[in-house]
Amino acid sequence: FNFAPIYTYPGDGNKDIAALGGVRDNENKLYYVSYPPFAFISSYYITKIFGGPNLYSIRVLGLLIHFIAALLIYLIVKKLALDQRDRIVWSGIFASSFYLFSSGHLWIHGFLYFSDILVQVFVLGLVLVLIDPIRTKSISKKQLFTVCLLVFFGCWTEWLMMFFAFVVGLYFLFQYFKHKEKICLYAFLAIGCTATFALLLTIVHYSSIGGFDQFIDVWLNKYQERSGVVVDIQGSQNLNFSNPKSYELLTTHFQDFY
Q1: Quick count: other Cβ atoms within 10 Å of Cβ 87?
Q2: What gap in Å lies between CA 16 and CA 160, rounded to an integer?
Q3: Comparing C-alpha atoms, which of 212, 210, 154, 228 is closest to residue 7?
Q4: Cis link prior to 53 (omega < 30° from 0)?
Q5: What is the full DSSP assignment across 165-198?
Q6: Please, are residues 159 and 199 in contact by the beta-carbon 8 Å criterion?
Q7: How far apart, in whole angstroms, are the C-alpha atoms of residue 215 and residue 223?
Q8: Which has the closest alpha carbon to 32: 11, 199, 197, 40?
Q9: Are 206 and 4 in contact (CB under 8 A)?
């Protein structure tokens, strides 16, 4: 299925359905292209290990990601601890346990799987790797390679990593101007090129399904409806930047979740 989730069920009668965020191929099949494809590609092959892809195997994958994210949180807190010689850092256990047994995360990861679930691993992994470079105001070639690897797969998974990579890149550019360390300039350029490559790979991949113009139109239309930037294009609840109810619902959502 072009390495992308497909909306269209078998049968000619299902080929003319309308769906937000989809592009059509030459057989009029509709594909979901709102997020980069790595979360879907990787899950397809990983779930085969657990006898999938099926409901059971995707839930196992979600819980496995949940555990890895909790472990990364522990390692982050341990690395930030004042005394890193301790074999067990109780603040790290508390932080990872807080995440591990959070009802919202546990429920979602136990029943659902999506791009913004997998990207947590790359975001947390990037935070872990960046602790030492931020402390030393520099970065080794090995650390830079690991950073670029995490940035690439993160950007190829979910747009959140694009924003994170942008901030990290600016940080190293600032360090270059401040300390004149060439490795910081190389880090800025490497992170920028890595994120750009992941974006271009996604564009080329999804454009191959139904053409570049169709893909860009779908992206722009979905952004306009979801973002609330264009007031004339609104969702069913009339939510946009100028509607106070938008912020009320956002606040209520976080209160209920946590």
Answers
A1: 5
A2: 32
A3: 210
A4: yes
A5: HHHHHHHHHHHHHHH--HHHHHHHHHHHHHHHHH
A6: no
A7: 12
A8: 40
A9: yes
> For residue 79, what is the enclosing H or E element?
helix 55-80
Strands (E), 8-89: 22-24, 30-32
Amino acid in position 129: V
In this predicted model, what pLDDT tens digit does every residue of 106-119 receive, in sequence order?
Answer: 888 888 889 999 99
Tokens describing residue 218: 């779908």
Tell me the whole-structure pTM to 2 decimals.
0.85
Which tokens in the block code for residue 232? 């004339």
Return the SS3 of 201. Answer: helix
Give the pLDDT confidence score for residue 144 in this predicted structure.
Answer: 95
- Check: CB of residue 46 under 8 Å from CB of residue 61: yes
CA torsion angle for 226, 227, 229, 235 (degrees, to 10)? 30
Could you report the per-residue pLDDT of 178-219, keeping only the tens digit for each?
988 899 999 999 999 999 999 999 999 999 998 999 989 888
- The length of the chain is 258
Q: Helix or strand or coil: residue 7?
A: coil
The tokens for 196 are 């750009």
DSSP-based three-state secondary structure for 242: coil
**2's tokens:** 């072009």
Residues 6+ apart with CB under 8 A from 47: 53, 54, 57, 58, 60, 61
Residues 144 and 193 sit within 8 Å (Cβ to Cβ): no
Q: What are the strands, taking DSSP E only, across the chain?
A: 22-24, 30-32
Q: How far apart are CA 70 and CA 72, in angstroms?
A: 5
Residue type, 126: L
Rounded Cα gap, residues 205 and 221, in angstroms: 19
